[in-house]
Amino acid sequence: MGLLRRDTPLKKIEKLKKRHNVRELRTYLTSHSTIDEELREAAALALATMDDAAAMTALASAVRQQNRNPGRDAGLKALPAARGPAVGEWAVNALRNPSQHGFGFDFPDDWVWSLALECAPERFIDMVEASLNEEPEREMRRMYVQRLTSLDGDRITEVLRAAARHKRADIREYALEGLAARGDAEAAEALSELRRAAKEARAAEAVRRAAEVRTSAAARICAACGRKVLTTEEFVAAAREVGFVVDPITGDATFTASGVVSGVGGLLDAEREGQRRYDEIEATRGYVCGACGRPHCTACLMKAPQHPETRGPRCPSCREGPHAILSS
Predict the structure, then answer these.
(1) How far is Cα 207 from Cα 186, in angstroms, rounded to an integer?
(2) Co-location of 17 and 106 in the same domain
(3) 67 and 183 housed in the same domain
(4) Which residue, 119, 135, 152, 293, shows the most beta carbons closer than 10 Å to its own?
């Protein structure tokens, strides 16, 4: 009686590939168990060379940038071998719907763009052309047009001309840039005009913001919540009215009972009420951002995240800082 022959692990992977058994191949690739690296690489190569959409999704899940599973290196090593019509179709679909094709975020890795452009250029062009009329706005559309400029041909020029008429300025800019690089003099002139207009718009916005800063600072209005903020002098005076003496330099506040207070219980009640009113006043004390010049109240600064460098609160308006007390 002859001995039963058992397949070696590498032989088993070959058989799994022939059967298009994506599930088990993915297990070999991403398992956290101790598996020989040669087996991981063989499983990854099998997935990459099957010319199968499900296999590519499995491979993408293993190698996506935010992943750190054991099969990532083997998957990246196998990717250059991925080719074929099914792979190209998968890449185009992955660009349209990244989250349904193994990517956790809205922007697929660079290798997906390369596969789409190399394996299915016509389908990629179809996708870009269709996306120009889609609603709602898609951030990926700008990237579609940008990548389209790397291809050549009469149809590319037609699509770029359509993109150059798009309502979004960033899409028009990429399209005009691609046309200008192809020697289109009118596109080059339009690109120059577009950039000049954008520069003027940025300058006008800077002037508008500067005027807004001056207005809010002069009116002493919190740029984040719109409430009126107090200068140091106003804050000290308001605190005194509710029974607190404030050191204008250190900011230390001390409660001093005033008027007729009956007994210890009355003193405690007066102090609690004074503290409540003092907290309301302190929330409106004003500070000025050293970066943008906008005033903000204490309440808004208390809710702002910490700046990693200054260790103080980030400016609610410009995200910088630090803040200084609004003295006058």
Answers:
(1) 32
(2) yes
(3) yes
(4) 119
